[in-house]
């Protein structure tokens, strides 16, 4: 009975801890000593409306139903990890670079676009293109200032800003969906991907950036999308948490090599701080130990089609005719089979803010406190 009582107490403590994190993610960071400026690059995990603005698409409710209670262009029922990270610095959410109306770039800009990857490098809106967009944004800003006009970010702001990169999931997903072997992905495709990320960091550094925050990719094999695909082929590759080992192993390989790239660049780029964050460990823990975080469905999409076990159908995705959406996204890790819910993103952000999963172990807000 004592052991059961102890386990119950631990579970209650875990739930209470998560409740605090969900309610007040900003508590993990102290205030900045200067105005925080963040420039973000990546894919749909970070896109705060860039795709909607660029393509003129509209994502109606239930997208954005949590917190915002309106369409925001995010592929989520609420906030993304980047939104929670911005909250931790008491700064405004990042406006998409592509949004012509209502944007506020005083705290930076978001160049992330849903569907983006690292390759091919010149295809809109690959990482290389996003970096070139930033270079244009900076040049235009400084040009306006030199002409006596106002710009949302000045030279000092660009110099002290944080440059956040979160990309790679789409590259890995596309590689396996195209039928490439595991060995080919690990030994050929991943090095090419990392070359693009390295080039982005180096380009930004020589353009004046010195603070970098680089996210590894999440556990690809835990996405309902990939699990539903594997189910059609009778894939027996599931681990104890119900995730696909092969895809997660590839995610680990990508992250290990990305961490090495960040370490190498830290030595080569004098004066730069490059922080690598192990997103895979954070997100896998949400699945493996979901009940401790008060999640009931770790591998089933809240918004999709088909019902259990994954509620994902490639032909009827979230918002497509016939889709179904859960009543309480707070019980789900996955929103639509690919992206996480507002509740899951809150926990991921809180883990990032702990610095426990970052190398080196510096706080997220270090760049605006020195």
> What's the helix count?
11
Question: Any idea what the radius of gyration is?
Answer: 20 Å
Structural class label: alpha/beta
Share in β-strands: 5-15%
Ends: how far apart? 52 Å
What is the CATH architecture descriptor?
3-Layer(aba) Sandwich
The strand line-up of the biggest sheet is 2-1-3-4-5-8
Low-pLDDT residue spans: 1-28
CATH class: Alpha Beta
The beta-strand count equals: 8
Number of domains: 1
- What is the overall silhouette? globular
The helix/strand order is HEHHEHHEHHEHHEHEEHE
What does the average pLDDT come to? 92
Question: What composes the largest sheet?
Answer: 6 strands, mixed
Helix content: 40-55%
**What is the CATH topology classification name?**
Rossmann fold
Topology:
Layout: H1 2-23, E1 38-42, H2 50-55, H3 81-88, E2 108-110, H4 127-146, H5 155-160, E3 162-166, H6 169-177, H7 182-206, E4 211-215, H8 224-232, H9 245-268, E5 273-277, H10 279-288, E6 303-304, E7 324-325, H11 342-353, E8 358-359
Parallel strand pairs: 1-2, 1-3, 3-4, 4-5
Antiparallel strand pairs: 5-8, 6-7
Helix pairs in contact: 3-11, 4-7, 6-7, 7-9, 10-11
